[in-house]
Amino acid sequence: MFPTPTLTIRDDGDDDPPRTDCTSAVPGPNGAVPWDACNSNYNFHPELTPAIATASIFGILTLVHLIEAIWYRKPFTWTVLMAASWEMGAFILHAYGSQDQQAQGYATGHQVLFLLAPVWLNAFVYMTFARMVYFFRPGGEPRVCYIPARWLGRIFVVADIATFIVQATGGVMAGPTVEPNTRAKGVKIYIIGMGVQEGFIVVFLMLMARFHYRAIQMNKEDVYGLEGGSYDREDEEGYMPRRNWKALQFALYAALLAITVSPTLIPALRKSCRCSLTDSYGHAKARIIFRLVEFTGGMTPEENPIPFTEAYAYALDAFPMMLALLILAIIHPGRVLQGTNSEFPRKGCRQKRKEKKEKKAVKKAAKEERKAAKEEKKRIKNDRKKMKTYGEVPDAEPDSYGMGLIDGQNHEPMRYADYASPVWILWQRYHGKELKSVLAAHERLGKIVRVAPQEISISDYETGVRQVYNAGFEKPGYFDFFQYYGQRNSFASRSRADHAACRRRVSSSYSKTTLFASETLSKVTHNIMYQRLIPVLQHHSAHGQPVELLRLCYASGLDMLNCYILGLSSGPDFTRNPELTEMWLEHYENRYSPQGFWLQELPKLYHGLRKIGLDVMPRKHYESTEWIENWMLEHCDKSEAVYRRMQNGEQPPAEDIPVVYNQLRKAMSNLKDGKFLDMQASEELSRISIASEIFDHMSGAREVFGLVLAYAVYYLAQNPAQQEMLKHAVAGLGMHVNQVGTNDANSLPSPQTIESIAYLQAVIKESLRMRPNSTPLPRITPHDKSVSISGVDGIPAGTRVNCFQWFLHRNPEMWTQPNAWVPERWLDPNGAERTDMPPLWAFVTGPRACIGTQLTYYLFGYILAGLFSNFNVQIARPETYGRHTPGSLEDELFVLMTPIAA
Q1: What single Pfam family name could you report for this chain, choosing any that match (predicted)?
Q2: Among residues 276, 309, 336, which one ends one of the domains?
Q3: What is the C-alpha separation between 84 and 863, in angstroms, rounded?
Q4: Segments of 209-248 assigned E as strands
Q5: Phi, psi at residue 494, to the nearest 5°?
Q6: In which element (H, E) is residue 295 found?
Q7: Domain hosting residue 614, numbered range
């Protein structure tokens, strides 16, 4: 029972007219008064228990979303955290308000948070969908219905805010303190705002439906013709996306439906003229269908019970929000949107302004350095370039890191502790910008640049690369990342002794003499060319379908290399199994995820964090490493079975002999002291040591062979004149499918004949020079003495030295038109190979040069000769070229193949 109300006129000390149409009641327990009293802040009597329970649930959801945001590293999910935390805050205030119903602050705070929380959730839906469009790129472009993905979220978030302002304006005009005519206009304005918002939501749903339809249509295309490259085939009846985009799409549908259709309790006709925001007829987030019901249902409990019953607020407002947040927690965007294009490039106006300032600072510093250099010209020869140290610490004054000068002529010892910091170069590596940043440093500062206290970069071959790499400097811990099964292999061996031990086991299998005489390699090459690769291309050609070169070249390269190493019957068949190719490439990409930075550059920090329960590596790195290592062991076990049969006197077909595996197996069996790399060579150790070595060799098909082969074919498609010259050069080889046949390996031209075609070799060399990506190949100066590099003496012991192949192959001092693909540069006027060319450093030099150099040239020659003996190639979907980082999983090159008549 409420006390008998007393008629009072409220005057809160402001300019609003006093209320004369209500009574002010004496508060009862917890400050409760009737809903129509002047001093009422609620249309009902709020209960404590459901408010605490609801706040707890939203608190749990907030914690879950926070953990997922950190785990998946998705900064844009801050919006959903705002939605969940504001809902939690709203019901915490509601719980306090239930115990003090006269405290206007609790009521107002609850309504404000309750009002705005759905706006954050809607923004999250918009932002997530925009990133789905950017990531999956339906139609090959990051847009839907001509709207760029980057603008999708912005447009609809702005529209959401605008309609909120319209509805808030209408709500204020419809408050209980205003005249009836103004109130009627306010209701109309509010309804207009809801209608406009509904229109935007309908448009957004249409865009989602368009994306959905286009994605499903893409699944029906052939795997090498997919636009976007983000899908994979699961079975023969229909295609399924490589990433589970459908689950996320339906999650967004469900969340949008829950927060759009659910009703909101209307705090109608609030009595306090100070509560102008809460005097609006509901939340800014539409909850449209039920909201319209509320507006047309009346303004008293008898006419419309919805605003006057607390249960409706929980059942038809709080619960749908809980449901939406739960759905988005179960199917979090971070589970689907993974990889280099899962986020928009973060380069806004602020970043551009910052870069502009940095460029000005660099120019100013360079000017000062030139001035200082002129003053010291008496002791520095003009014909020698100066070596400068380079380091940068964000937000630091230039003097704090210094760009000091080291006099190359006077051979002063390198001062390294006083100048540079490792922060700059580590930052560039973490963000994948090392090549670009260090290249810019070389262009400004010369051929030897200091990038950290104990680290330099070189870009000169004669005085730099030859001194470091031909001398066999040891490798740093960076290469431990390339061990497999925890076992060292040739590439991951840091000391010269370990590398020599690994290399000796297998080097003869890759010698030019062995390869040219190998019946196994000849038959493997013929089989994969004429029974796998060319039939796949003929299928695409017959159906007029474009070919995605990168995946096809990865597949055929992996097949040829693995089948020579393991034997045809023991090796994989990627070329005819695009699903396996896509799966393997994705696991390989996860194995070498960008987070590998921590293992390569900061391994001690990584292991220290793991000891306290913090793992900076994503779970998929470990899962994919396990998958790909198990895959390798399965094929090695097949080769082991062939090896044992051969040991028992059985002779398999030549193409099934695991040439490289057999040599590794024999080397491990014939160890003199039963040890390999200071470990007892047990049967299991031998098994995984062999697998680690083979994995190292096989990875070359992904990192170099397949990548360069795909770009070589694409360059030829871009340059019809050079393509015609190559087809003319190989026309006499008799490699057309009608001339060779699919079963006669002896009909292939000899390796010596392939090698003698000068224009073919020029195409191969130019394509290797133009390799579109590059990786650092660090070495460590001897630990017991200082050395001289690029004319600079006193480089301290233990200094890391880096050189990118890009620096040598794109150096304008060594090459004319360094960024143009010009195979003719390798030929003299008579068409013969030139002998005076700058060094091609595609496979490094010195005692640690790539062991597979000759095999690469062998396979390159046969594949290019076979392709252009059978097909004309032209560009398809040119818009995909250069859109992604070359060699990344998202990179794509499309061409059309048309057959050449025999």
Answers
A1: RTA1
A2: 336
A3: 57
A4: 231-233, 239-241
A5: -90, -40
A6: helix 288-295
A7: 496-770+821-899
- What whole-number distance in Å separates Cα of residue 765 and Cα of residue 840? 8
CA distances from 493 to 128, 407, 487 (A): 44, 35, 9
CATH at residue 718: 1.10.630.10
Q: How far apart are CA 307 and CA 324, in angstroms?
A: 23
Strand, helix or coil for residue 787: strand
Say which residue the tokens 């899908």 belong to.
231
The angle formed by the CA atoms of residues 789, 793 and 794, to the nearest 5 degrees, is 110
Strands 387-389, 448-452: pairing kind: parallel
How far apart are the C-alpha atoms of 22 and 4, rounded to whole Å?
13
Q: What percent of the chain has pLDDT over 70?
A: 78
By CB atoms closer than 10 A (0-12, 13-18, 19+), residue 672 is exposed
617: left (phi over 0), alpha (psi -120 to 50) or beta: beta
Give the pLDDT band of residue 378 (cuts 50, 70, 90): low
Is residue 502 within 8 Å of residue 653, measured between CB atoms? no
DSSP class per residue in 317-386: IIHHHHHHHHHHHHT-HHHH--STTSS-----HHHHHHHHHHHHHHHHHHHHHHHHHHHTGGGS-TTS--
Which tokens go with 301? Answer: 């409990």
Cβ(560)–Cβ(859) under 8 Å?
Answer: yes
Which of 872, 223, 137 is closest to 548 using CA atoms? Answer: 223
Q: Mutual orientation of helices 758-769 and 706-718 as an angle, nearest 10°?
A: 110
Pick from 264, 359, 403: nearest CA to 320: 264
In this predicted structure, the answer to whether residue 558 has a pLDDT above a threshold of 90 is yes
What is the per-residue burial (b if ≥16 Cβ within 10 Å, else e) of 500-516? ebbbebbeebbeeebbb
Place of tokens 């392709």: 867
Closest among 755, 753, 769 to 825, alpha carbons compared: 769
As a whole number of Å, the end-to-end CA separation of the chain is 102
**pLDDT by residue (tens digit) across 16-68?**
444 445 677 777 787 777 767 777 777 777 888 888 999 999 999 999 989 98
- Alpha helix positions (H), 518-618: 519-528, 534-542, 549-566, 578-591, 596-601, 603-611
432/452 Cα distance (integer angstroms): 17
Are 263 and 293 in contact by the 8 Å Cβ rule? The answer is: yes
Q: Render pLDDT for 431-454 as a digit per residue (tens, 0 to 9).
A: 889 999 999 988 888 899 999 988
Check residues 353 and 274 and name the one with the higher pLDDT: 353
pTM greater than 0.70? no
CB-based burial of residue 230 (10 Å sphere; 0-12 exposed, 13-18 middle, 19+ buried)? buried
Instruction: Count the domains in the chain.
Output: 2
What value does the mean pLDDT of the chain take? 79
* Burial class (CB within 10 angstroms; exposed 0-12, middle 13-18, buried 19+) of 856: buried
Q: Which two tokens stand for residue 604?
A: 């001690």
Assigned domain for 310 exists? yes
* Alpha-carbon gap, residue 723 to 187, rounded angstroms: 72
Integer Cα distance of 848 and 34 in angstroms? 88
Q: What is the residue whose two structure tokens read 């470091």? A: 468
Spatial distance between the Cα atoms of 392 and 449, rounded to a whole number of angstroms: 13
The predicted pLDDT at position 158 comes to 86
Q: What amino acid occupies position 602?
A: L
For residue 884, CA distances in Å to 251, 427, 599, 887 come to 28, 21, 25, 8
Rounded to the nearest angstrom, the gap between the alpha carbon of residue 856 and the centroid of all alpha carbons in its chain is 29
- Domain-embedded: residue 408: no
Is residue 433 situated within a structural domain?
no
* CA angle centred on 643, ends 641 and 645, rounded to 5°: 70
Residue 166's domain is classified under what CATH number? 1.20.1070
Query: 148 phi and psi, to 5 degrees?
Result: -60, 145
| 233 beta partners | 239
C-alpha of 340 from chain center: 2
Q: Is residue 29 part of a domain?
A: no
